[in-house]
Amino acid sequence: MLIDDVERVLRDRSGGTATELARALYGSGGYQERINPALRMLCASGRASRQGSGGPGDPYRYFPNAADPPAPRGEQQATPNPEIGTPRVDLR
Fold it and tell me: Which of 16, 45, 64, 85 is the most exposed place for a label (fewest CB within 10 A)?
């Protein structure tokens, strides 16, 4: 699916413009109009973000958003325990 392919390329090339990401996905024949709808959907869903004004001197640059970053090693993270309805603590 196109949106998954764009998201994969975005994770590999964080901070790329639409044109750069399209070329990474399609090669020299890649152009931004091919992936703009997928990039807009990723941003609208919170799976990606963009920075810049969108003009020629400051094009949008796209960044992946981490869905659920892992807790740093050795810290505790509470997760719900569906069996008893209270949090349990996992040491990672």
Answer: 85
